[in-house]
Design a protein that fits this description.
four-stranded mixed beta sheet, Glutaredoxin, 353 residues, alpha+beta, 3 domains, Glutathione S-transferase Yfyf (Class Pi), Chain A, domain 2
Length: 353
């Protein structure tokens, strides 16, 4: 649990706050997760909105509460707690009913929440590339300078390295943007995790069994955010897609995800394309042996349309992938010593593995 101590906190006024106070932003994934948890628990709380697009979290007042500059923050009877999963576990102990962490599974859930939290920068990567898509650097140099200069710099009295990780992310995003390589790596991590969740949901309605738990809340937020990026859940993880839709229909969830921002500028490529989830080849099946033809025709066809590829100044039926695939198919066919068969059509097939 990350509860700050007195020397970490420069904005001393919060030490006098009584009751449950939450500093949060409407579109923050971690804030959404905490608010859904509070809704399901029925815990009354006082709202303190923090404007992330205006970089309010990088200003002295907020950094005096959370030196890491992240939302949400919980202030409960003057005690300051940071990190959303730690806040949730603290509140589960403090307000035990209704139970959202199954009895006897506290250690397991803590471990699984750490695994979920390990994907947070990957979610941010995909969000800023495909969901928010700001036209320039996500964070200005001036805001990052304020971020670096303010706050105690300590968490629980120890010099904290997390702020440096956050600043490095934003500086790199300003320098090179969210590159295809970065987006692809993050998307592939999520594909692995959602594949695991999809298998779990084959035998149970929720991630830990027959009842809703904090794991459902945590992974729902990731699934919902990635759905805004057009992650192909229905095709790759159909059980996750159905589970996410079921949770999204619940009012405790629905009201906390309303109003998520639309992209601020045109998005370069789709997540599915950049991640390599779909590899499509346009193949002209001429001069193919029956063996080659049967091989290609056996691959599930998901779309078909003509396209062309310039070769030697002439339009040549081809594909939207490198020319070599069609050329190599024909070379393989000719090497068989037969004239092959003539298929006067083009097919498109998609590798889904």
């Amino acid at each position: 649990m990350v509860q700050l101590i007195g020397s970490d906190i420069k904005t001393r006024e919060v030490l006098g706050w009584r009751g449950v106070h939450v500093l949060h932003f409407a579109g923050s994934s971690c804030s959404q997760k905490l608010r859904i948890f509070l809704n399901l628990k029925g815990i009354p709380w006082e709202s303190h909105p923090i404007d992330l697009p205006a970089n309010e979290n990088f200003q002295p007042w907020f950094l005096g509460i959370n030196p890491r500059g992240l939302v949400p923050v919980l202030v409960h009877d003057g005690a300051v707690h940071i990190e959303s999963n730690d806040i949730i576990q603290y509140l589960e102990k403090t307000f035990p009913e209704p139970k959202l962490i199954p009895a006897g599974h506290e250690t397991e859930v803590a471990s699984l929440l750490r695994r979920e939290d390990d994907q947070h920068l990957d979610l941010r990567t995909l969000s800023f590339r495909f969901v928010f898509a700001p036209p320039g650097p996500p964070k200005s140099a001036a805001s990052l300078a304020s971020y670096a200069a303010n706050g105690s710099g300590t968490v629980q009295g120890i010099a904290d390295r997390e702020k440096a990780v956050q600043i490095a992310f934003w500086q790199n995003a300003a320098k090179v943007g969210i590159t295809d390589d970065a987006a692809r790596a993050s998307a592939q991590k999520f594909r692995k995790e959602f594949h695991t969740l999809d298998r779990q949901l084959a035998s149970r309605p929720y991630l830990m069994g027959d009842t809703l738990s904090v794991l459902d809340i945590a992974w729902f937020i990731y699934a919902y955010r990635l759905s805004l990026a057009d992650y192909p859940f229905a095709r790759l993880h159909p059980r996750v897609a159905a589970w996410e839709a079921k949770l999204r229909a619940r009012p405790e969830f629905a009201r906390e995800i309303a109003g998520t921002r639309a992209p601020a500028s045109p998005v370069r490529g789709t997540l599915e394309q950049v991640a390599g989830f779909s590899s499509r080849f346009w193949v002209n099946l001429t001069d193919c042996t029956p063996v080659i033809a049967r091989f290609v025709q056996a691959i599930p066809i998901r779309a078909a349309q003509p396209c062309s590829h310039k070769r030697d100044g002439r339009d040549e039926p081809g594909h939207d992938e490198p020319w070599g695939f069609c050329r190599d198919l024909r070379r393989t066919a000719r090497a068989g010593g037969t004239s092959g068969i003539l298929l006067l059509r083009e097919v498109a097939f998609e590798r889904t593995g």
